[in-house]
Amino acid sequence: MPFSTHLDRHQSRYVAELMEFIAIPSVSADPTHQGDMVRAADWVAARLTAAGLEHARVIPTKGHPVVLADWLHAGADKPTVLIYGHFDVQPPEPLEAWTSPPFAPEVRGGRIYGRGASDDKGGLMTPILACEALLAQGPLPVNVKFFVEGEEEIGSPSIPDAVQSLAPELAADMIFSADGLQWRPDQPQILEALKGIVKLELVVRGPRADQHSGLYGGGIANPAMALAQILASMKATDGTITVAGFYDDVIHLTDEDRAAIARIPYDEAAWLAETGAPATAGEPGYTTRERLWARPTLDVNGLTSGWQGAGSKTVLPAEARAKITCRLVAAQTPEGVAARLTEHLCAHTPPGVTAELQVIPGGSDPLLIPRGHNAAALAETILAEVYGKTPYRTRVGGSIPILSTFRDVLGLHTVVLGFSHDDENLHAPDEFFRLEAFRKGQEVYGRLLQRLGGQA
User: Fold this and answer.
1) Mapping DSSP to helix (H, G, I), strand (E, B) and coil, where does residue 367 land?
2) Are 299 and 325 in contact (CB under 8 A)?
3) In terms of DSSP bridges, do strands 54-59 and 66-71 run parallel, antiparallel, or are they unpaired?
4) What is the strand order of the sheet 367-368 is part of?
C-alpha cells in the first residue's frame, strides 16, 4: 500500500490527535505553564514512538525541555536527515477575541482552530505522520533524527547550549525545519533568508521620584523628553537608521537579488490595506518588499513613563523606558548591533539624566541559505510535484533562532519546509491551520524522504 494511501485512510485520526496536542497549553513565556511544557514534551515523545521512531526521550535544559528521537537503520550509504520543530506556543490573550477557546480546538470550514494549530503543532505533526506512513510500508528510505524544542516562541535562550551538548547525537547530512510558511494554499515557496533579532530595553532615569512639574519643570531634566530625544536621534524621518556603524556588516542586495525579489507578485495597495496604515514608510532607495525581506530595522515596541491614567497628573517622571527590537540581516549579529546602539547612547544622552541599554535574552543571528543548496533544490522539486507549481524563492522578516545555531554548531544550513500561511493568525486570536495544508505537508515530507533515499 503506498504511503499516501495510508495517510488518506488515517486523516481523521491524525486530526483528532492534532486537536489533543493543541489542547495542551504549552505557553513557554508563562511560568504558570511549566507543567504543561513538560506534558507537551512527553506528548511529542510518545507520538514519535507511536509513529515508529526509536529512542524518543525528553531531555531537560536550563529552560524548557527538548525532545529527541531517531530511526537509523537505512544504512551508512543513505543520508541522515534531521527534522526540527517546536511544541511551545504564544500566549493566547486577549481571550475574549477568540471565537472558540484557544485550548479547546475546533474544526470549522476545513480549518482547525486553536493556539499553536499553525505555529507549530500542525507543522510539527506533518513529518512525524509522514514517517509513520512510510514505516507502515517497511523501513524508512533514509536515516532520520528529530529535534523538537519548547522555547522557540521566547527566542530559544537555552537551546544553543543544548544543541552544543547534543551535537554528536544531532549530526546529520541535512536539516529541514517543519516550522515555516508556504506562500498561498495553492502556491508553494522556498525560504532563502530569515532575519535575526536583538531585543533591548532603554531606561532613562532622572530624579529619585516623580516631581511636581510646576515646581521643578525647567530646572531639572525630564526623562520622558530625554527618551524621546534619544529615540529620535536613532532614526531619521525618512526611515534611515542613523546609529553610526549600524549598516557596516550588512550584506547588500545585488542586482540579481533585487530582480529575484521583484519577480514575486506583489500588490502594495492590497498589502497596505491589510495593515490599515495610511501609507508605506521606510529606508529610502529600497522597495517596500526589499525593506521587509532584506534590510535591517530598528523599531520601538513599547513606551512607558509618567502618568498613564485618565485625565492629567502634572508630574515630571522619574524614569522612562522603551522596548526596542532590531531585525537583522546577514551578516549582522545581535552582539554587534547592541554594541553600536550602546555607543550611540553614550554619545546622545542629554545632560541631566542617565541612560542604560539592557539586552533582553532571546536574540538570534540572521540566516541566508546559499543559492544552489542541494537539499533546498530537492525540496523545491517535491513542492512543485505536490502543488503543480514552481515554488517562489522568498525571504521573510521573521526569525527562527535555532537555525543559526544549527549552522554554527552542526555546520549545516536548514531548509525551511513548513506549511503554515501568514493569514492564519499566527500569534493572534483565532489562530488556525488549513487541513488541506496539513495533508499536503505530510505528502511533501513522505516524498522528500523517499527521494533522498533513492526511491522514485
Assistant:
1) strand
2) yes
3) antiparallel
4) 367-368, 189-194, 392-396
Output the pTM of the full model.
0.89
Alpha-carbon 234 to chain mean position: 26
Coil/strand/helix, residue 355: strand
- H helices within 107-252, ranges in order? 122-135, 159-165, 167-170, 213-216, 223-234
Quick: pLDDT tens for 34-47.
999 999 999 999 99
Nearest to 316 by CA among 393, 211, 386: 211
Three-class SS state of 381: helix
pLDDT reading at 421 higher than 90: yes
Would you state the cell numbers that stand for residue 369, as one nine-digit string?
541559505
For residue 249, whether the previous peptide bond is cis, meaning omega lies within 30 degrees of 0, is no
Closest CA to 178 of 386, 419, 408, 399: 419
Helix (H, G, I), strand (E, B) or coil at 158: coil
Q: What percent of the chain has pLDDT over 90?
A: 90
Q: Distances from the Cα of 104 to the Cαs of 45, 92, 172, 420, in angstroms?
A: 22, 12, 37, 20
| Structural domains in the chain, sorted by start | 3-193+367-452 (3.40.630.10), 196-258+280-364 (3.30.70.360)
- Asked if the bond preceding 193 is cis, omega within 30° of 0, the reply is no
Q: Is residue 415 helix, strand or coil?
A: strand
Q: What residues form DSSP beta bridges with 322?
A: 202, 303
Compute the distance between CA of residue 25 and CA of residue 47 in angstroms, rounded to an integer. 17
Looking at the predicted structure, is the pLDDT value of residue 456 above 70? no
**Grid coordinates belonging to 184:** 498561498
The grid coordinates of residue 14 equal 491524525
